Amino acid sequence: MKKSVVALSLLLMLLISGCDLVLPEGPPDIDTVKLQESTLDSVYLLDDFSLDTIKLDITYNDGTSKLKPFNDAWVESEQLNALESAGSHTIEYTYEYQGLSYSGSFELKLVDNEKELIIHRIHELGLEEDAVLDGYASWKESIRGEDGEDGEDGRTVEIKRDGDMIVWRYENADTWETLVHIDELTSEAGTAPLEAIDAAKNATVGVAVTREDGSGSGSGMIYKQENGTYYMVTNYHVVEDAQTVEIAYSIDGNLFFEEDSVEKIGSYPEADIAVYAFETEHTLGTLDFADERPSIGEAVYAIGHGGGFQAFNTVTSGIASKHHVNVVLDDVNAYFLQHDAPINPGNSGGPLIDKDGNIIGMNSIKVVADQFEGIGYALPYTIMMRMIEELEETGTVVRGELGIMTTSLEDCNATTGVCIGEISEDKTADMMGLEVNDRIVGIRSETMDSTKTIQNPPQLIEWLYATRANRDIQIEYVRGGETFTTEWVELLPRDE
To answer: β-pairing, 177-181 with 332-339?
Structure first.
């Protein structure tokens, strides 16, 4: 393979590690401000949760750093009120220092009983098959003290199977408590049913290429079959500069290769995506795209050929870790879904699926370094669907742009949305009549039934990636404390 998707430079990893915040130019004594991910869990017990368990990592120009516990004052009151009830929450915050604001957001889930918390941990850690169902498992869980003070340094939760029941206790407790029936655990765990995994494997193919300087391989997924032709999507870097492309598929454990009928439909290097069509006398499967993006902490499954075709159609699992992560690497500049399902060389272009076996992304990149683990990136299904449609029609992708530069939300006296700092003449935003310091809070295209709420710049940029140029759009914005909606205006193409 000409370009390794596994070996990333330290520079890229530093870039990724700082993607939580959109930083204005800070005062001279501050270098970076970022959320310390290790202090944020994806799920908490409602009665035990406190924002001050989450911390900001502030690094100064002299090389020193400081962890600053979260302060309620950084979060708007309505979001604080929402944290009084169980459910999934997106928390937006603004940290102010010497007149400058540092904004970011994170997601978490609150549950109102320990049973639900433990079941979530079982799902999240993937303990169902290897540990719980076969016998025993444990992990450290931070618990608040009985007096309401900050908790002990973690208590070990023990889990085991007792007949058809899963039972649990705190380490060395005298009695075990019933957690859940084994059938209920398996169905709730978010584990893709075996039938869904088998169907996804039947729609996952191998991609073998030859180049002037050698050969390479990767994975791909069949997303439709039409008039006897199968359509497959993979990563652009898998087929870049290919002289020949073969599609490999498995029938009853036997590998077959198709080359003669393989036809390139189109590609777009910036999003690392390519579409091919091929024919075969065998019957293969197709994968459907998901209807909604996975929640943070939800189980995900990667299928592909990590390590080469000797590991054809292996399956690994993990959780969705973060949405809207911007990755810039070589020709790639796109927004990805971060997850921790193990992926390796050969997984590139393979599907990331949900528990129902539907496509939620295409595995593209993995961070490999001693100080990092469990960081993989998949191109979201929303961007895939939009680009596949255009690649089938024209062979390439033309992205649209609003023609704006953003600025700090402090300039708009707000903590959510996208504040406009500059507007380019005769671009989409200008044609809409938007002005500097207008705050974008929603956006809609002619193909959507309702307006999508926009909370931050990454959400807006990812939406633009997933929307074709030359379609009519409208924007909901705030000006002078009042909310307005623009007329429908054509999303103009981006200057290439």
So the answer is: unpaired
Please state which of the ranges 231-240, 275-284, 338-347 shows the lowest mean pLDDT: 338-347
Q: Residue 279 carries which side chain, given as an amino acid letter?
A: E
Comparison of pLDDT for 243 and 191, the residue scoring more: 243
Q: Tens digits of per-residue pLDDT, 56-97?
A: 888 777 777 788 888 887 888 777 777 777 777 788 888 777
**Nearest-angstrom CA–CA distance, 163 and 186:** 15
pLDDT, one tens digit per residue, over 159-175 is 776 766 777 777 777 88
Residue with tokens 């007149």: 99
Place of tokens 């075709």: 309
Q: How many CB atoms lie within 10 A of CB 324?
A: 20
User: Whose structure tokens read 């079959």?
Assistant: 225
Q: How far apart are CA 275 and CA 431, in angstroms?
A: 34
CB atoms within 10 A of CB 485: 13
Question: What is the average pLDDT value for the chain, to the nearest integer?
Answer: 80
Angstrom distance (rounded) from CA 53 to CA 50: 6
What's the one-letter identity of residue 461?
I
Which structure tokens are listed for 315?
A: 């399956």
Class in CATH terms, 404-490: mainly beta
The Cα 388–Cα 453 span in angstroms is 25
* 466 neighbors 397 (Cβ within 8 angstroms): no
The first and second tokens of residue 478, run together, are 């705030």
pTM listed for this prediction? 0.61
Q: Whole-angstrom Cα distance, residue 363 to residue 237?
A: 12
Q: What is the pLDDT of residues 437-447, one digit of tens each?
A: 999 999 999 98
Report d(CA 200, CA 162) in Å as an integer: 33
- Listed in order, the ranges of the chain carrying CATH 2.30.42.10 are 404-490
Residue where the block lists tokens 């799920």: 43
Q: Report, at the CATH architecture level, how domain 204-278 is classified.
A: Beta Barrel (2.40)
Span(s) in the chain for CATH 2.40.10.10: 204-278
Q: DSSP characters for 381-431?
A: HHHHHHHHHHHHHHSS--BB---EEEE-GGGGT-SSSEEEEEE-TTSHHHH
pLDDT tens string 390-448: 999 999 999 999 999 999 999 999 999 999 999 999 999 999 999 999 999 999 999 88
Q: To the nearest 10°, the Cα dihedral for 340, 343, 349, 354? A: -40
Nearest Cα neighbor of 2 from 205, 213, 206 is 213
Q: What six digits make up the tokens of 59?
A: 């690094």
Do the strands 30-35 and 55-60 form a parallel or antiparallel pair, or are they unpaired?
antiparallel
d(CA 186, CA 181): 9
